[in-house]
Write a sequence for this structure.
């Protein structure tokens, strides 16, 4: 499952560590999601979409 | 949405590592006593033997079954993936043990076959080996992602 979290993070100019702290996960989790190594749960996907002010479909796609 | 976790708190992991460190120290001490470098009474030797058996067992259980410092769903995913590899390891080692145990008497002398079967039994039936393999795989994958995310962080 692809995503554009890296792009959204670049637009907001925040690091992986800052995003991880804001969402309440570890830095490794953000790295793994960005590099398509890990598919987040629905809860985490919703948290990420709420943080970036986008819908889940805009952040993640098949 | 908080999910209930059956894992022990992270403090137990620290305690587990201390137990494993103490085990390594005592193992060295018991080796020195066995070589008669230090004169020890039988009771001390018995206590040492008991501690050397108990410490790694409890230590490994604590390290394997406790939470990481930053426990989240990705760490849980790594834990599940490690458990999958442990099942594969256990299955393969069982298969090798069965094959070697039955084939060894035909291929080697009885004494050599017995030694091979004993060595295989140690790697298959000893839960400490499984615990060690689990810790090595799990910690290595956590460390790998930690280092990769550090270099890719900005």
């Amino acid at each position: 499952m692809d995503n554009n979290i890296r792009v959204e993070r670049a637009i907001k100019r925040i690091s992986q560590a800052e995003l991880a702290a804001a969402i309440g996960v570890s830095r490794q989790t953000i790295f793994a999601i960005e590099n398509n190594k890990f598919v987040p749960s629905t809860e985490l996907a919703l948290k990420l979409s709420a943080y970036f002010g986008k819908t889940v479909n805009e952040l993640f796609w098949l | 949405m908080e999910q209930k976790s059956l894992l022990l708190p992270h403090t137990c992991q620290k305690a587990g590592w201390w137990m494993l460190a103490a085990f390594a120290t005592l193992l060295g001490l018991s080796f020195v006593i066995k070589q008669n470098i230090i004169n020890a009474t039988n009771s001390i030797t018995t206590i040492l033997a008991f501690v050397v058996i108990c410490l790694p067992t409890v230590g490994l259980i604590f390290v394997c079954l406790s939470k990481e410092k930053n426990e989240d769903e990705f760490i849980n995913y790594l834990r599940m993936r490690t458990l999958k590899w442990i099942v594969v390891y256990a299955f393969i080692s069982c298969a090798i043990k069965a094959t070697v145990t039955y084939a060894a008497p035909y291929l080697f002398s009885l004494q050599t076959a017995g030694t091979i079967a004993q060595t295989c039994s140690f790697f298959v039936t000893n839960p400490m080996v499984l615990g060690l393999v689990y810790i090595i795989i799990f910690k290595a994958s956590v460390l790998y992602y930690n280092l990769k995310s550090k270099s890719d962080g900005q």
About this structure: The longest helix of chain A spans residues 42-52. The two ends of chain A are 5 Å apart (CA to CA). The domain at 2-61 of chain A is CATH 1.10.260.40 (434 Repressor (Amino-terminal Domain)).
